[in-house]
Amino acid sequence: MAIETFNLSIGQQKFFNNGRILLQALPNLESAITDALSVPCNLTTITRKPKNKPSYQGITAGSLNKALRNCINTIPNINGETHVENGIFFHTTKEGFDFSIYDKQHNRARLYNYYLGSVGILNGDTKIENIHKKLKLKKKEWKQEIQSISSSLPANSDYIVEKKQLTVAGEFQFGNWALVYRDLFRLLNADSNPGIDFYIYITASNTLSNLISSNTVSYDKAIDVIEENLSIIKTPIWVIGLDIKK
After folding, report:
1. pLDDT surpasses 90 at 214
2. Which of 106, 104, 113 is nearest to 146 (CA)?
3. Least crowded by CB within 10 Å, which of 31, 77, 196, 223?
4. How far apart are CA 172 and CA 201, in angstroms?
5. How confident is the model over 5-32, as pLDDT tens digits?
6. What is the 3-state secondary structure (H, E, C) of the chain?
């Protein structure tokens, strides 16, 4: 194995469910994503020896995933690993979307209402205090925020915050080809609660696809699977096929 520098760029792209139209309603997102994915990256190379074929120098999916996470984190207001639990966005090591953009105040309101709102849950006042780690907050800071919200509301009332930002979720996928079905199931599940307004799916195309492995998710395979399931997928989607040059 060795580390070499490669230049990434968007090789192919396609939109579904009026994704191109909705992207225009997300100021600067297209240019921010394009710029973040069009940079030099240090990637780990590996010698691949396919059966009955000549050996060749490929790259590891792990190093590519790590590099892309670093690239995408340069975009303002973007969140890293994001999973949905009870209709609320959290950031822990639990598997979820690779990145997201959402209205954090609206998300906090949904969280408060789940635990302490007009319906609430049993022992919600105690349970809500113990989720500060999922929000990457100090317990004292989170407790003060809960008390601030509670003091401004009548007992057993919902905290109403108008959503002011579209919700974006995104995924990098360079693993086994069957994982595209799992990714779309996660999208369907999250789209019903709390709701995903725009989905970005980033995978490999052309040269990059050949350098990773033959049995991984590729741009063409992702397009085929999405087209087969458009009757149930209603979320606007932007599929990006990344390419690479040494």
Report:
1. no
2. 113
3. 31
4. 6
5. 999 999 999 999 999 999 999 989 999 9
6. CEEEEEEEEEEEEEEECCHHHHHCCCCCHHHHHHHHCCCEEEEEEEEECCCCCCCEEEECHHHHHHHHHHHHCCCCCCECCEEEECCEEECCCCCCECEEECCHHHHHHHHHHHHHCCCCCCCHHHHHHHHHHHHCCCHHHHHHHHHHHHHCCCCCCCCCCCCCCCCEEEEECCCECCHHHHHHHHHHHHHHCCCCCEEEEEEECHHHHHHHCCCECEHHHHHHHHHHCCCCCCCCEEEEEEEEEC
pLDDT of residue 229: 95
Assign 51 a pLDDT band (cuts: 50, 70, 90).
confident
pLDDT recorded at residue 133: 86
Q: Do 120 and 150 touch, CB atoms closer than 8 A? A: no
Q: Report CA Rg, the chain.
A: 20
Q: Are 114 and 148 in contact (CB under 8 A)?
A: no
Please report the sign of the dihedral spanned by the C-alpha atoms of residue 103, residue 115, residue 98, residue 169. Answer: negative
Burial of 137 (0-12, 13-18, 19+ CB in 10 A): middle
